[in-house]
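User: Sequence in, structure out. Go.
Assistant: Echoing your sequence, followed by the structure tokens.
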Amino acid sequence: MFTTKYRPTKLSDFIGNYKIIQPFIKWLLTWDKNNKKNKCCLVSGLNGHGKSLFVELMLKKHSYHIIHLTPDDDRGKENIKTSIKPLLNIKKTYDDCENVLVVSDIDTVGSDYGFIGALVECIKETEIPIICICDDKYSQSLKPLLAYCFDIKLSKPTYNDVYALVHKVVVNEKIQIKKSEIDKLIEQANGDIRFILNTLQLGVKSNDTKDIQSTNIFDTTGQLFNMDATFHDKYATYWLANDIHPLLIQENYIGCIMGSKEIEKTLTDNTYFPKCLDYLAKSADALSDMDIVDAEFNFELSPYVAANCIRATENCNKKGHIKFPRFLGKISTQNKNKREKLDYDKVKFSNANV
């Protein structure tokens, strides 16, 4: 995979954002548990700008030991209290490396009720630096953290920085691509290096698809259901909102297939059945394969997730309005119900005989 082959191994190879390196180093090396305003560093930036990689390379350069807390881990309030808090009092490892807690994707809290509050308590009591990573630091859920955070924001790499990497990949891999196509690819990627590398590896040509900031997700989903669109067109559209498109396709693919009047003859008993049933089976198989690959939580497998997602739309045709995923609505309801539940640990019962 190009994303592995061309992944930077040292800080000097990181693409762009050179101006934030020194402020980050200064915060890290002068960290003081008594400085309540800067006990945590909040690293933010759009998806694909390399936030996690930047933090990893920085800590590697200065020989810090990373304690990870990711969305894959149990981030419930109780687990943080019992498993994470005790580690915040251990300043160094057995080989004398200083510990740092790195918490990824704090703005994708999901169903981890109480997570942000528990994280704030950790920041107040910690004996080691804490680094939090997010896409959107203006998310309402993060407000309680901001008073304790030193702000580091990654911006989109410059054209020259990205072009140097693309030129290196194109030359090393002997890829036949025009300069104009490289320029379009860089513009379309909007600073997402992973997208550029994955696109170069799959040999997908860039097009003039609008940026997600000016495109509605319901419109882009409709483009994915367009039977006349090519794989290349759909692939470029998919990345405009790759985090929500799979759910939108899963919610709408049945409605975009059903109603077909086509019939076909079986090879076994000469009976006839609607062709749409065969289309449904193929789309369901593709979505199942997508879920299996996506469950690995491996960015290197993202192109295969995209390919299976697009495969699920091959026999679909947009009919009517695109529906919002009911799954997200159910999650929202579950979280609301959790908040409304009583805290039974604080309820006092009478001495009634049971």
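User: And one key feature?
Assistant: The CA atoms of residues 81 and 309 lie 39 Å apart.
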